[in-house]
Design goal:
Length: 487
Amino acid sequence: MNEIDLDKIDLTQPPPEHEPERQYYFMAKCREYVRAESKRLGRPLICGAFTFGCQMNARDSEKLLGILEAVGFRPTENEQADFVIYNTCTVRDNANQRVYGRLGELNRYKKQNPQMKVALCGCMMQEPTVIEKLKKSYPFIDLIFGTHNIYKFAELLCASFETEGMLIDIWEDTDKIVEDLPVERKYPFKSGINIMFGCNNFCSYCIVPYVRGRERSREPKEIIREIERLVADGVVEVMLLGQNVNSYGKNLEEPVTFAQLLREVEKIEGLRRIRFMTSHPKDLSEELIEVMKQSKKICRHLHLPLQSGSTRILQQMNRRYTKEQYLELAERIRREIPDIAITTDIIVGFPGETPEDLEETLDVVRRVKYDNAFTFIYSKRTGTPAAAMENQVPPEQVKEGFDRLLKLVQETAREQVAKYQGQVMEALIEEVNENDASLVTGRLSNNTIVHLPGDASLIGKIVPVLLDECHGFYYIGHCILEETGAE
């Protein structure tokens, strides 16, 4: 993709039928439109891509921004731009409300800058009720598309240059996977990699399978090739992404397990660290545990969503494991990989949850001793089975339970994180500390943050750090390169 010269594409010919060549044709065409508008205005056109949601959304936004830069836009973090795209999330209703709130502000910017274009994409756009609301209340939007045709962004962008009014292109589903398009990575030294798309689990509270579609896995050789390119470009850490990476490869013509894929990724020379998420407990295999145990590159961190510690509630959630099965799995992981950090997601206030159910969840937290947990108050999501369930939990009961859970999670997490004080561990330095320019911020293999003296020259390097002081969820430390004489 870095070798394609858009200026050499013959636009007098019809667009190619095959992907991704077709999209490069439309990128070349968009570049002509951008150049003409830039010449008319006497300045470069600027663009902003803004992400709402998960790591997969963030990775998609890097692709959107890569295409925008390829056609001639200059990126900005300011929404007062010539082209603004929101890559939306719809897991919770408040994510939708945030987008609606920002759209009101964009309308004001567009009145000040009439040639400004506004685009929306992502999970939220897969909901028919959202599209109807956008058409009725936000007619100034130029382009709307969903999750399944994001690879067609260049083609849709070209169409928006050529038409007036709102352009909508939403697919209900797809079996297509198109990669090898431009990407503008946020970090030069680490990158997310989509290994699969969609979800087959249908947890009763979750909208994702309805907006992301069924599971589709990428071919292993394509994933390996992409990572090799990234490593050649300076990447030392990759994050393998999927709604449930543990079920990777089941739908391929020649099925491959996630553990087998990890073995192949580990062979890539120059790659130092491998992360992945998310792992569904019901699909986490003995083979995967063994691969993680033996690996020198897979990070010592596993995100293993619990959601509830009550078997009864888990059944209502359609999670397909019991409390006992989850505890047995967590204990096995801790036993086989003693230095691993386990994090989780927990929902409080699912319909029908009783104080006794909450006690079951607290019991799991005490026994697993999570290194961190993302705790959520149940949010009724229109379009999911749980939204129609009776026995919605009273808000005061939910708040009391949430506060108890949060307090316990913080206690166990502090205890877990503090275990490493005084040890030397390797940290990937990610940025200059935003609060103190004399410090840099790094991330340990177990995903714990550490702040240490240093400057921008350390960014992207993996260095040994002595963990001096534990401050709850992070460390203050210092690099021991000079002390050890290492280079």
